[in-house]
Amino acid sequence: MTALSPLLKQATPVTIDHALGSEVFDVDGNRHLDFTAGIGVVSTGHCHPKVVAAAQEQVGKLIHGQYTTVMHQPLLRLVDKLQDVLPSHLDSLFFANSGSEALEASLRLSRQATGRPNVIVFHGGFHGRTVATATMTTSGTRFSAGFSPLMGGVHVAPFPTAYRYGWSEEEATAFALKELDYILATLTSPQETAAFIVEPVLGEGGYIPGNTAFFQGLRERADKHGILLVMDEVQTGFGRTGKMFGHEHFDVRPDIITLAKGIASGFPISGIAASQELMSKAWPGSQGGTYGGNAVACAAAVATLEVIEEEGLVANSAERGTQLLEGARAAAVDGIGDVRGLGLLVGNEFTAADGTPDTARAQAAQQAAAKKGLLLLTCGAHMNVVRMIPPLVVTAEQVDEALEIWGKVLAEV
Ligand SMILES: Cc1ncc(COP(=O)(O)O)c(C=O)c1O
Predict the structure, then answer these.
(1) Where in the sequence is the domain holding 117, given as residue range(s)?
(2) Is residue 6 part of a domain?
(3) Which of 95, 126, 159, 263 to mutate to test the pocket of ligand 1 (most atoms within 8 A of CB)?
(4) What is the three-class DSSP state of 94?
(5) Which has fewest Cβ within 10 Å: 172, 174, 271, 411?
(6) Closest C-alpha to 106, from 84, 78, 125, 124
């Protein structure tokens, strides 16, 4: 008898029958509040009618056009639509299927455009599961253990994770930038460094926002040395943080941003955006793929962007995000050391009395919440951060309901 591989780990015991908005209904008819959103993917909520209609219409016209063979309208429409939301200097787009592929594309372009071999990533970052992106991932050894040798040319610098260091944000930032300079002096010279690759908010690494001084410090060094600044917006893009893109919180200009997850409400499509000038430093055919820019995914992405705009979902993310963060802070009990986030990315870090990560309690809380109808995930190096990432359409009432369940969970575990 065939079965799903035990390689897959599932965070909840739920098998879904159908879903709508921020709610999913399991095969036994139970309703669950989905504060995982498919790991930050279903931005417009599950099965938004407009996204469903766009995808259904496209399925009847063209499913797969293969963009290195022919061009199709949904892809051109998506390029056009993205112009409305992307920073104006990022006016050239390449599409792939997954976040990992977008990161691979950004790495390939960075190396080809600069002719330099190395990149610097930031400790706690998550960039994917392919061998190259697993090498660039430092949010937990579970993502890279057991299949070495990994890719060469990756160096790791500190991220200003103030809570973990036990420092102020200023101290953590000063330390991170000082170490970056030391790395550029001792491990990879600027002339051999193609890019800094960084998330605006560490995602898998524990929902830790960066800060303006840190990102501007990266920008200054990038400008000084001709290094590219790649911001990985796979999780933080498309309104998730309360702005269209996470980096907009920090007044910093990226050279490349990576796009995936929230772009198409659940259809697999990803991409990178850079300037025409930068893209033209590589060559036609240097990137591609069989399924990139799938027509149905593109149609769903266009509809997603329209819904985000028409329903004011970026503003809703900011407002509901504040409600969720404040509510989670108010609900925090002894043993939750830090509650932090940006928009609808909220992390609750469980810390034992001796200051060590309390993985067992975080896991128990996540499981207890699932039993009470609230789907959550964990993250962080020690899986001791319970993260809350509802769809951007979540309502004030649903946030209140989730917080009420969360309060009961915390009283129990
Ligand atoms: C910031 C970031 N980059 C890259 C990825 C990899 O995306 P995918 O799982 O689609 O390959 C993820 C996935 O969680 C992510 O959060």
Answers:
(1) 52-310
(2) no
(3) 126
(4) strand
(5) 411
(6) 125
